[in-house]
Every structure is written in structure tokens, then in C-alpha cells.
Amino acid sequence: MKAIFISYNQALSERIMNILDNNNVRGFTKWALTEGRGSVDGEPHYGSHAWPSMNSSILTIVEDEKVDAILSDLRKLDEATHMQGSRAFVWNIEQTSSFDTPAKNN
After folding, report:
1. What is the pLDDT of residues 2-21, one digit of tens each?
2. DSSP H helical segments within the chain, as ranges?
């Protein structure tokens, strides 16, 4: 399993969700308002008077074989909307546990 953290300009929210849907990614956690500044170029997204844009961020855990297709789709989106700003990071998930299963009565 891999974790993919995606940070992007809020204006790209629908497109990011489409990428997840098209890659059959159901589960994720989304932070609707995140602030940030790119490490290479682009304007800061601080939600302030001087820098009014804001980011959103998503964390999703996916099977290893889905990562390349998702990153490829995200790259294509970034190339088409470079000035909006987006970034994705991937790391390994060592363990997972589901807490949505009802507890068994003993």
C-alpha cells in the first residue's frame, strides 16, 4: 500500500476528484483549506489580502499498482494548469487497520 498526499489550488478540486474517480480511488481524507507556497515557483496560497488563493489537500491510501496511473494523471493536469500549482508525494504504508467494523460481542 502507498499513501499519496496531493496539495493543489482549490480551483482544481473538481479535476482532482475526477482523477481519483477515474482511477477507482474511493477512500481519502480531504482538508478543504490548506496554505502553502511552492518550492520552485508559483505564488503563495495564504488566503490573505495579499495572497488570496487557497489550497486543498488530499491524503489517500491505494494499492501499489495504482500509483503510477494516478501520478501520470496528476502530471498531465499540472502541465495543463501549471500556474495553479499542485504537488503530489508518495510514501509507503507499513500497516493499516480498519475501525469501521462493528466490535464483536464476547
Report:
1. 999 999 999 999 999 999 99
2. 13-22, 67-80
